[in-house]
Amino acid sequence: MDDGARVLVVDDEPMVRDVLSRYLERGGFEVEAVADGERALAAFEASRPDLVLLDLMLPRIDGFEVFRQIRARASSPVIMITARGQTTDRIVGLEIGADDYVSKPFSPAEVVARVRSVLRRSSATAPAASEASLRFDDLEIDAAAREVRIDGRSASLTPKEFDLLLLFASNPRRVFSRFQLLDELWDVAFDGDPATVTVHVRRLREKIEAEPSHPRRLVTVWGVGYRFEP
Questions:
Q1: Looking at 97, 122, 147, which one is the last position of a domain?
Q2: What is the bridge-based pairing of β-strands 147-150 and 153-155?
Q3: pTM of the full predicted structure?
Q4: 143 and 224, same structural domain?
Q5: Eight-class DSSP state of 193
Q6: What residues does 228 pair with on adjacent strands?
Q7: What's the CA gap between 155 and 136, in Å, rounded?
Q8: What values do phi and psi take at 101, rounded to 5?
Q9: Confidence at 96, pLDDT banded by 50, 70, 90
Q10: pLDDT average, residue stretch 162-181
Q11: Mean pLDDT score across all residues of the chain
Q12: Is 24 part of a structural domain of the chain?
């Protein structure tokens, strides 16, 4: 399933680049590794990888800016690499739409597992024709094309935000706890921090709700989780 998928590794530490490249190549991935933000953007533009492993502390152009420029060009999944204990960096990364994160020091095997999980979620098999489009008044979800429209206007969602919305919309009025959502969308490779669900729900509301602070579609069930109102 992952054979031949292209991964761009961006980290200024030679040992990190070398170790991740070797483990990913053993896993069947095609890997390109670069050391700074400028080279990262050039490599992304040249090869359009299927996934980017992106360190935040980069010379020339920092990881956050690299991420923003990547997102402006494509929806390729991005896993951010953060320093140990940098909770703020992780939260900000998730706020701006990163699909996952890993913290240094990490297990290379775990990183490969996370890469597989994110790729699997972002390239899931298209649904049957009868399920390819969901419509709820002004909200239309084209599952086959992975597109969302509000009042006919396209909404720009990250791959994870789209997966989250599709899961909710496919199960209207079903209540999901944050840990259930972690199991469904982040799979076994994720370390189980429910804060990322809160961040993604908030970001999704900002894109699909007329009043994100008073959501009509994506409703909080206090003490339990969230549900989608059709």
A1: 122
A2: antiparallel
A3: 0.65
A4: yes
A5: -
A6: 218
A7: 15
A8: -145, 155
A9: confident
A10: 90
A11: 86
A12: yes
> How far is it, in rounded angstroms, from Cα 25 to Cα 32?
10
Q: What angle do CA 169, 68, 11 make, to 5 degrees?
A: 110
- Domain hosting 214: range is 129-228
Sign, CA torsion 205/208/212/217: negative
Q: Give the DSSP H/E element, type plus range, for residue 123.
A: none
Q: Tell me the torsion sign for CA atoms 180, 186, 187, 193.
A: negative
> Would you call the peptide bond into 127 cis, given omega within 30 degrees of 0 as the criterion?
no
pLDDT of 131 strictly over 80: no
The length of the chain, given as a count of residues: 230
What gap in Å lies between CA 210 and CA 155, rounded to an integer?
A: 12
Neighbours of 168 (CB within 10 A): 24
| Six-digit token string for 20 | 């991740």
> d(Cα 90, Cα 40) in Å, to the nearest integer?
20
d(CA 51, CA 124): 14
Q: Do residues 117 and 190 lie in contact, with contact meaning Cβ atoms separated by under 8 Å?
A: yes
Identify the CATH number of the domain in which residue 209 sits.
1.10.10.10
Judge contact between 224 and 197, C-beta under 8 A. no
3-class DSSP state for residue 205?
Answer: helix
What's the half-sphere exposure (Cβ side, CA atoms, 13 Å) at 53?
A: 32
Answer whether residue 1 is part of any domain: no
